[in-house]
Each structure stands twice: as structure tokens, then as C-alpha cells.
Amino acid sequence: MWRSVAPWSDQMMSTSIVVTGHRQREAWVRKEMPPVEEVRPGLWSIPVLIPENPLRYILVYALATADGRLALIDTGWNTDTGWKMLVDGIHSTGHDLADVSHVFVTHLHPDHFGLVPRLLEPTDPQLAMHNADARHLRFHSEEELAGEFVAAQEDLRVLGAPTDVADTGLLEFVRLPGGRTMDVELDDDVPLNVPGWNLRAVWTPGHTAGHLCFADDDAGVIFTGDHLLPRISPNVSTNPFQTPSPLADYLTSLARTEHIGDLEAMPSHEYRFRGLADRVTDLLSHHEERLTEIAEAIWNQPGATAWDVTRAVTWSLPFSDLSIPLSRVALRETNAHLLVLEARGIISSTGHEPVRWTVTDTRPADHSIESATIESATTRGTLR
Questions:
Q1: Confidence (pLDDT) at 171
Q2: Is the Cβ–Cβ distance between 53 and 90 less than 8 Å?
Q3: Range scoring the smallest mean pLDDT among 10-19, 43-52, 224-233, 280-289
Q4: What average pLDDT score do residues 260-289 get?
Q5: Beta strand pairing status for 212-216 and 200-203?
Q6: Rounded CA separation 201/217 (Å)
Q7: What is the pTM of this model?
């Protein structure tokens, strides 16, 4: 899984954001499902269960269109319970499944895309997402799936993963049925053309290569997907479906989001909030602290592999308590930070399988790793 103890950084809620989804936050605190809620006229949040996951649910958003139809942002995890929650939520808006005319997907993870194939059975909405994610969700043959599995194993061995971690497989995505393709492949700042709304796509790579937010300046809202959440930091990891340096991309995306305006955030998890710029500052600071911790771990263990570093840094549970799937995600997240430190000139790599890391000997003896990391953060807007 890419969400649980390791893949999400469990932070304290920012004191600088303003919670606007009060019923959602109350439900979150009580560990309950929030209600279907009309958060604005013609805009509903529909919780859909994520089974056996601390996040508990995804918030699907339903938008009434000027022509009497319904547009969805994301769909939910594919279970019978989740499907019923989505259908019941759509009915509570006064619409039927046949009214769904558009589905905009923030990114490829199955809690967001998972119910799309099921939704295609009773209706035929226009599907739209970014190409960098959409290309992985087309129908795959058995040979293609086997090739992805081998590539993932090799990638993990390069990071120093032990055999039981490297050989336990690749997460399977929900994919489109054979013959079905994405109708619209969105790019940055492209209008969504939803009647009655002024929505546009905002490309925010990092959590995934094709992650999108959807902003409507007239309505004063932005659907942030997993890019910005009020309390936790999304997992940003290297993997065969990612860009070469996903954390560098994420830091750049955060810097862009900081200046998007005072819009109310409609996230995919937890609850609605205001204070985008302050939340961005919190997340940038969080990653700088993590980069410093990882650099210190390499300073203390020259020649460490990514696996060695993963075992040395702190997680929200002791590393020994993490399951193999979670330890694999933790490893990939650590590697994303290593690549940023390398780009900043703080560490360098040697070897091929596995790659080993050392702190660069060009760093002045009296220049602390922490100050070097923070100083180099001033270039984060150009890290891509």
C-alpha cells in the first residue's frame, strides 16, 4: 500500500490553516465516516470507504452542471461497499448514475480511479486525467504486467532492498477495460469545459507524475486531490511510474501552489480548509527537516544504501514493525529524498547494484548539513 504508517507523514495540523469542513473534521476526530454534504450550492462531497486503511475514506466531489447533468472528481476504491456509497451519494444529490457526464481523475491511485471501470458499465461519461498517469491505466497484457513486475524488482535491488522485500511484487493498478481509452488527456491550465463552472486543470506532479488539482477562481475553490491535505503529508516516492525525481517535482509544485490565491481547499482526505500558502510553508519545512535527517544518517554511515538509510531514520512506527509492503514504500520515499540531496550537491552516489551514498567532501568542515540543506532549498523552485 502507498498509504498507511510509512507512506504518509503524520503531522500535527497546521495552526495557520482555517478548518472550513467542520462536520468532516468532527467525523475525522471521532474516526467515523462523514456525511454526504452539500458544501456549496450544487457541489457535494461524497465519502467512499477505503478498506483497511487509516485514511478510512476518500472524498469524491459531485458538481451539478448547468445542463442538468453531474460531473465527478475522482470515484473511490473498488469494493461493493464503496460502490454503494458512491451510488447512494449520487442519488442524494438528486441525480442518477445516468446523469454523470464527466469524470475528472486527480491521479492514478486506486482510491481515486478504482471505481471508474464499474462506473462505465451503467453509463458512459467523458473520462479526463493527465497523460503522465493515464498512459499507465490503459489495458495491459499479461506480458506487459510481467515486464512491470521485473522492472520493479530490479529497481528495488538497486536501492539495496533484501530479497524478501524486492521479490514480493508490484502494486497492481485498476486499469481501463480492453478497448476503452481516456477521452481527454489534460495538461496544465487547460479548461475543463464543465457547463456552469470555470474549472481549470493545475498540474502538480510529485505524489504521482500526472497529479492534477482542479481550480475554479470564480467559485473560490480548488480540488487538491492528495497534493495538499490539512494534516498529513502525502507519500512522494520513486517507482517505475514516476518522474526521475518526484520529490523535486513535488517541491516545485508546492511552490507554484503557494501563489494560486485564497481558494478554499477541497482535499481528497480529511476535511476542507483555507490557508493554502501557510499549508505549503508547513510542507516545505517538513521536507527540509526530513532531508536534513537523511543527510545526517549518511554522514553517520558513509557508503549506506537507500535501504540502510531507510532503516536508520524515524517513522511513525518503529521500522521493525512495518510490514514488507510498507517497508518497500518507506524505501522508495527515502530514495526520493536522496535524489534531491544529490541534486543539491550534499551527497554523491557510487556503485550500481546496490547504489551507495556518501556526504560530499566539498562541504566546508564548519558548514552543518542542516544549514547546507536549508540554503539549497532556495533553489527548490527550479529543481525540475
A1: 63
A2: no
A3: 10-19
A4: 96
A5: antiparallel
A6: 12
A7: 0.90
Question: Are residues 139 and 178 in contact, defined by beta-carbon separation less than 8 angstroms?
Answer: yes
159-171 tens-digit pLDDT: 999 998 988 756 6
Number of helices (H), then strands (E), belonging to the chain: the values are: 12, 18
C-alpha closest to that of 41 among 66, 22, 24 = 66
For every residue of 291-341, which 3-state class applies, written as one string?
HHHHHHHHHHCCCEEHHHHHHHCCCCCCHHHCCHHHHHHHHHHHHHHHHHH
Task: Write out the three cell numbers for 67.
Answer: 445542463
- Are 200 and 214 within 8 A, CB to CB? yes
Strand partners, 273: 19, 265
Q: Where are the beta strands (DSSP E) in the chain?
A: 9-10, 18-19, 37-40, 43-49, 57-64, 70-73, 100-104, 126-130, 184-186, 200-203, 212-216, 221-225, 232-233, 264-267, 273-274, 304-305, 347-350, 356-359
Q: How far is CA 309 from the centre of its chain?
A: 23
pLDDT in tens, 68-88: 999 999 999 999 999 999 999
CA dist 72 → 42, 100, 294 (Å): 12, 7, 40
Q: What secondary structure does DSSP assign to 25-82, as a single string?
A: HHHHHTT-PPPPEEEETTEEEEEEE-TT-TT-EEEEEEEE-TTS-EEEE-----SHHH
**N-terminal to C-terminal alpha carbon distance within the chain:** 27
| Dist. CA 279–CA 271, nearest whole Å | 14
C-alpha separations of 148 from 144, 241, 319 in Å: 6, 10, 27
Is residue 192 within 8 A of residue 180, CB to CB? The reply is no
Q: Which residue has the cell 503524520?
A: 10
Rounded-to-integer distance, Cα 185 and Cα 167, Å? 34
At 308, the amino acid letter reads D
